Amino acid sequence: MSKNLSIVNKDLKEERDKINFNVEEFTNWFYGGAEKVKEKKYIENYFLSDKDLNLELDTSYLSYKDKYEEAVRRSIVVYKKLYKLHNEMGGTHEDFVKIMENLRFTMGAINPEGNPFVLHFSMFALTIMNMTNDEQKAEWLPRIFNCNILGTYAQTELGHGTYIQRLETTATYDPKTKEFTLNSPTLTSYKWWPGNLGHTVDHAIVMAQLYSQGKCHGIQPFIVQLRDSETHKPLPGIDIGDIGNKVGFQTVNNGFLGFKNVKVPYKNMLMKNSKLLEDGTFIKPKNAKLNYGTMVIIRVHMIIDAACRIAKATTIALRYSLVRRQSPINPNEIEPKIIEHITQQNKIFPGIAKAVVFKCMADYLTKLHLSITQEGNTGNLARMPELHALSCCLKAVCTNEDAKTVEVCRLSCGGHGFLRSAGLDDVYRNSTAAQTYEGENTVMLLQAARFLIKSFNEARNGGSLTEGVKYLFDFIGRNGKREIFDNSINGILRAIQAAAAGRTYIAWKHIEDDKRHNSIEVATNLAGVHLTKAAELHGYVCLLQVGIEEIEKIIRNVSPALGLVFKNILELFAVDLILNKIGDVIQHVDISNEDIEKLEKQMETLFKFFRTSAIGVVDGFDFSDPIIDSTLGSYDGNVYENLINAARKSPLNQEDVNRTFHLYIKPFMKSNL
Ligand SMILES: CCCCCCCCCC/C=C\CCCCCC(=O)SCCNC(=O)CCNC(=O)[C@H](O)C(C)(C)COP(=O)(O)OP(=O)(O)OC[C@H]1O[C@@H](n2cnc3c(N)ncnc32)[C@H](O)[C@@H]1OP(=O)(O)O
Ligand SMILES: Cc1cc2nc3c(=O)[nH]c(=O)nc-3n(C[C@H](O)[C@H](O)[C@H](O)COP(=O)(O)OP(=O)(O)OC[C@H]3O[C@@H](n4cnc5c(N)ncnc54)[C@H](O)[C@@H]3O)c2cc1C
What we know:
Blueprint: H1 10-17, H2 23-31, H3 34-48, H4 64-89, H5 93-110, H6 118-131, H7 134-145, E1 151-154, E2 170-174, E3 179-183, E4 191-192, E5 203-212, E6 215-225, E7 238-242, E8 255-259, E9 262-265, E10 275-276, E11 282-283, H8 293-323, H9 342-377, H10 384-412, H11 424-436, H12 441-460, H13 471-478, E12 483-484, H14 489-515, H15 520-526, H16 528-557, H17 560-580, H18 582-588, E13 589-590, H19 593-620, H20 625-628, H21 639-648, H22 659-670
Parallel strand pairs: 1-5, 2-5, 12-13
Antiparallel strand pairs: 2-3, 3-9, 4-8, 5-6, 7-8, 10-11
Helix pairs in contact: 2-3, 2-19, 3-5, 4-5, 6-7, 6-8, 8-9, 8-10, 8-11, 8-19, 9-10, 9-16, 9-17, 9-19, 10-11, 10-12, 10-16, 12-14, 12-16, 13-14, 14-15, 14-16, 14-17, 14-18, 16-17, 17-19
Residues 119, 153-156, 160-162, 193-195, 249, 254, 433, 436-440, 442-443, 446 line the site of flavin-adenine dinucleotide.
């Protein structure tokens, strides 16, 4: 960690002196090994130490346009260095991935309001890598990796983001000219939202309805050039621009795009899945949802992003809570560190546990995605629905928790948490954006619920179930009897499983009852609230189940002292979860008031133990000061000095008297109204 060289606040030092496990060992786990930590530090320093980035400039005070221009300038500095480093490292694809993974953190420090090239290196490149045939790969990938072209992923339209089957952009094929003609037939068919589209990129993957031989063949991806390679002027028929100010992501350059008779060559339709013969004959893919593959990959990646945002927010909140003193607990004693207030522990400690469990889930899901993708490459698509359901469910649950936790962290920092310099606003804006992009969270939960209902029917009919939903058998096997609660970690898991299965049953029954008077679709809509609750509970089941399995493995491989910390974290996660979901649990589990009181007491005991480890865990997340970028969360804990120094940098403080005094205030004060 590049620690601040200033003297560490004595309260924080005192906390660190009490840490009873090896922080470095935790860091090595979080990043996947000592070698990876070394790489991370090297890469981080390699980029952040570059004076050309001019990181001294606080971009939050710039205008919208200046912010964008500075973000582009900084990104180019970074990407030039990226290619230099890539060559130095050996130039392999793995080296590139390593640098990109580490840039996830570093880019946030360089462009806190978003990266104007993020879609080029993520959805654009991934779609071309995964949805093209060999010829197309050979044509496009070198140009993408050399950045000779820059691209984005243009799917969402003004009228439709969720229900992509009804996208309106058309691509009509003419076998005589061997060209597609792209059109935006209505205002609502304008592409709207794609990141980096407004003024940055010159190409896009465009999702459009394919028309050939007089028939519509559904949405297909096309590579479309949007701007001239020399002048960057929009090409004929292209109406393009920036969508304007947003809640966050100010420098991501989200854009709009309309087409008027834009010609695209035959070879630009991505042909790995669906195929169009030159004569216009359409050949269906093995599974129509293969064209949704890029979204699945990004949803999987979003779990680690959520874990990191929570890790960052809790680092800020905890370090601040260990140096801020307020409100004596005993009237005659000195004011304690605010962390001594148990409610403050309740705000921050469960968040730290979530970051760890989400990281376990991210690792698990990444491996599952890899193995299901490998099966897919051999033509076996059987597990695609399972991966889709799981990634939708966890994308929703983890980003919802993320936004909630980051906001609680902001609240836990009181007034100072509301300052931009506290560093929580950009984290929150990114968290809340993630609840919407890559599939709105309610919609994602409903997709997961479809899988749950199907699995429930399968279980009722004595069919087979995938591992993650086998608990539905237990529910059916109990035949209406409630699960008996036992206060162990596996007992908590069984209780959450019973709640998830019970809620699935309620949703299923709701649909079955309504089906008598309505279509299945209407009945399903009427059961929507139950369905989303069931999917949410299922997400928590997955998190706890994977958390238990992964943390048991970790405990076997780390020192006993760190093992105890992991055990504590897992229990914190589990007890916090069951207490938060107690209403659902009571409905389906035989749990007494005494059991609940015991759980509440257990939480207090867990807090007591975690009180000494917490600072070690957040230090172990290993966010350097430039990455944490927070007056309240810096390693040295000198929050008051940081706050006043940051305030002095406000543009208003660069002069004693602002011109508005003479222009408006003084005449107003002298006017006697
Ligand atoms: C320190 C901190 C660091 C933090 C760093 C932060 C960095 C941030 C970086 C930012 C990164 C990126 C920038 C943002 C990028 C954002 C990009 C976007 O948002 S792109 C646009 C995304 N759009 C969506 O997600 C659209 C959502 N809609 C859908 O996905 C679909 O329409 C639908 C799945 C909801 C429905 O599809 P539809 O075709 O209508 O399906 P049906 O309802 O007819 O059928 C459902 C049926 O299909 C199966 N299905 C659906 N999808 C899949 C799939 N992908 N794989 C397999 N199967 C699928 C589903 O299971 C159903 O099956 P049934 O058997 O019928 O039940
Ligand atoms: C920051 C950001 C970046 C983005 N980047 C990109 C990008 O790079 N490329 C791109 O193509 N798109 C991008 N998007 C678009 C994004 O993917 C969509 O906004 C998102 O998928 C939600 O779709 P929508 O806007 O149509 O919402 P809507 O579907 O209109 O949602 C509105 C409300 O309707 C509800 N609703 C809709 N359908 C259903 C249903 N079936 N059942 C129950 N409730 C329903 C939703 O739950 C929600 O409450 C971005 C969006 C944001 C915010």
